[in-house]
């Protein structure tokens, strides 16, 4: 059974000395501030949410989405925390409802920080590019990677890249990178397992938290330290696999609430979903009277969106509190909203947005372009660190010096540097660099 006092410890990853508490600014609030001022967070302003490189300044970017998820997460955390503090008399140990809100809010703020350009298709593009590149390399070179390392790249995961950014890449060379608190890092990690876990070890386990993985082999020791610090339940001794931190369920719910509801609003603003369809999708949850209002359709959609989000927050809180004991025991492993009374309608929303928005020709064309852009960038830079021909030498010089591989590093670490560089790009930077490497753009004359 996990213990809230340990789950909320303000211990920072990479620090041994106690936190220097500042009046009015908790360790978890400092996590939030560090994230806001970080370079990877700022780059989210030019990363795809759904509509890549959109000229419509209303449409959400990854940055705006992350801020909105953070707001919802803060509400979820504070409301849940208010009840949990009373249930377990945590105020005796100095904890308050705001601690819960700040942890969830910070984890939500960072939840997309590792996503590559061009949305989730960017992850697929890197996976596909690695598989093609690795297949070609194997024909001429010895195998550089072990099975776990290959799986890291073949299933390249923005969540794992995010953990790597937070704990190693940002603010180097200090241990722990940004040195966020362990509760924030644990709540951030919705998939607390390594990439390679045999089916025989899962043994038919179907929990939500194994859908993806949360850290690369390179950061396995760091997540192990996080898990042990906050007291996560280890699910198997032979592999790196733990039960979720309870607050990770709230982080997931905040993300699910935002993209389900907000994708409808954005789809309407882009003209893919009619007002009547939008009303049917949102007002099934919002249940407000919009017939008497003199507002424009856009204002009505805003009101329905706000009310629907509020209703889903209430549902997620109720479900979490009802299942608190099995969450703490590690037995609960479902997304909270799948147990809500709106589950079927949320599935309808997701089906509708997929058919009318995600599969729209304009959106799909950008995703295809993402495959071309990221595929070429990964392949060219990966080749540049292995090959000695003239072109590879020139491409190598295009790498920023902080991504130059070190002589003593193995190939796995060197290729991680390439995925660090490519996945950290913004949409427009990746597009511009692709054009340069393809000879489409030659820069200023």
| CATH structural architecture | Orthogonal Bundle
The average pLDDT score comes to 92
Oligomer: single chain
Output the radius of gyration. Answer: 22 Å
Order of helices and strands: HHHHHHHHHHHHHHHHHHHH
Number of strands: 0
Q: How many domain regions?
A: 1
CATH class categorisation = Mainly Alpha
**Main pleated-sheet profile:** none
β-strand percent reads under 5%
- CATH fold annotation: Hypothetical protein af1432
Distance between the termini: 66 Å
The CATH superfamily is: Hypothetical protein af1432
Q: Which secondary-structure class do the elements indicate?
A: mainly alpha
Number of helices: 20
- Please tell me what the overall shape is: globular
Q: What are the low-pLDDT stretches, counting only 5+ consecutive residues below 50?
A: none
- Give the fraction of residues assigned to helices: 55-70%
